[in-house]
Amino acid sequence: MNPKSPEARKREGNPFDGLIIENTEILDNVESRSACTICGKSRMYFCYTCFVPVSQLASRIPICALPIKIDIIKHRREIDGKSTAAHAAVLAPGQVRVFTYPEIPEYDIKNGRTVLLYPGAEAVPVSSLFSGRQPLNTYSQKLLSQLPPGYNVGTLMTKTLEEVENLEIYHVSQWPVDRVILIDSTWNQSRGIYADERLQKLPKIVLKKRPSQFWRHQKGSPRWYLSTIEALHQLLLELHLCAWGRSETYTSHLTLQYPIHRPHNNDSYCVPYAGQYDNLLFFFKFLYEKLHKLYDSENLLAYKRPMT
To answer: What InterPro entries does the record tag this protein with (predicted)?
Structure first.
């Protein structure tokens, strides 16, 4: 989509339109910091090291039930208070684990049901997990075919592709993955973690392009580099939509290109997407709106980044 088109500008003005996120007024009512109930450190809305809400918000924030387990591998230099990985751990307790590199759990790689989310050379689209079909070209081969003279493998991931994909619903009774690993860091930091042989053994997947609404600027990175919580939300969207499609009543622009679920061969286990994971963006939406009340987004470098 042309970023200057009326439709694109409308989406930029209200990027959460159509998403089903609970009212964040309870966060507005938090006027001062309080001690974390576990570590005792001063926190505003939640503790980003213990992954619990402050006592004032206990039992009042939405909890997201995820159908798979998520592990987030955080770079040791990633600043806890600025990372969105904590959003996931607070909003999906027990289903999201956060580790600081070089700590990486042992994964069972034999059944192929644990995958790494990272746009590496061997990465395949999420839909390939369902179809079992491998793309004719790998992610890097597709990029290489478009690179002008002078580009090399080291700069591949500064570009992305508009892929034409035949989107379909696979009507599966079970998702093809049990656990997904995400890397939480800047792009330059992520390469070192990605190179770890413990992660290299895992199958890799890559997401569709989605403009980030994250306010934290990364110099030299395009707009489609998502924050960790945005990437997790997009991942779950793609998995759910491939498995069971979307509800005809769900209107977020993030899903409109996917087919609507219709009853199919007595598939009572199919639950179309109707915003089940949108509350993962509960804190993100609140902080986004709070920041945009204080600053003009036209002046924020994060929103001036190119999409390519």
So the answer is: DTW, tRNA_Mod/Golgi_Maint
